[in-house]
Amino acid sequence: MEIIVVLAHPNNKSFNHAIAGKVVSTLKENGHSVIFHDLYEEQFDPIMTTPELEREYELPPGIRPYCEEIKRADGMIFVHPNWFGQFPAILKGWVDRVFIPGVVHSVPEKDSIVTEGLLRQMTAIAIVTSHVPMEQELKEFGNPLETIWKNCIFGFCAVRDASFVFLTSVFESTSDQRVGWLAEIEELVRSKFPRAHSRI
């Protein structure tokens, strides 16, 4: 299987980087091909242009490879922090520019907004870290990122198997807690992307 892993955190010493590292190593141990994108390391440009929005010309060279990867991938895993109930702007821009008609959903007919999700065979996971205690997150904010990922993105694109993981509070966590979270992530990844069996 070919799996895309997208990381969006500017600090390469962050727990997000540790999570992404665990995800990548687990996938490789299970025999899968991994395409890893550290959006900050790649200096991805999140700004969509008017011609892109209006589909007036060919996709920019920097965007086309991401789109082609999604078309052939079996799964996607996203790792990012919770910033004001949203994901970092660089990831929002990536979704805006890459999750486009013809890639993740069908191109609507003229004068219509009806589309069909194209990721029916996809397995996807969003892993989010936060400093807000879970009780406060649910009571005051309603965990908007879960709705965004599971309904607005994965659901809209007809992802077959979607998972959302919310790890909190990272700021107050101990080393043992983080080790435990990494173990949980490893178990989830192994269950969603089982070991690849070679043909004899």
Task: Note the main attributes of this structure.
200 residues, alpha/beta, Rossmann fold, 7 helices, 5 strands, globular
Question: How would the blueprint of this fold be written?
Answer:
Layout lengths: L1 E6 L7 H15 L3 E6 L11 H4 L10 H9 L2 E7 L7 H10 L24 E7 L4 H8 L2 H12 L5 E7 L7 H18 L8
Parallel strand pairs: 1-2, 1-3, 3-4, 4-5
Helix pairs in contact: 1-7
CATH architecture: 3-Layer(aba) Sandwich
Q: Show unreliable segments.
A: none
Share of residues in strands: 15-25%
CATH homologous superfamily - what is it? Flavodoxin domain
Kindly report the average pLDDT value: 91
Query: What is the fold-level CATH name, i.e. the topology?
Result: Rossmann fold
Q: What count of structural domains?
A: 1
Largest sheet: 5 strands, parallel
SSE string, helix = H, strand = E?
A: EHEHHEHEHHEH
Report helical residue fraction: 25-40%
Approximate shape: globular
Distance between the termini: 17 Å
Rg of Cα set:
17 Å
Category from helices, strands and their pairing: alpha/beta
Count the DSSP helices. 7
User: Total number of β-strand segments?
Assistant: 5
CATH uppermost class: Alpha Beta
**Sheet with the most strands: spatial strand order:** 2-1-3-4-5
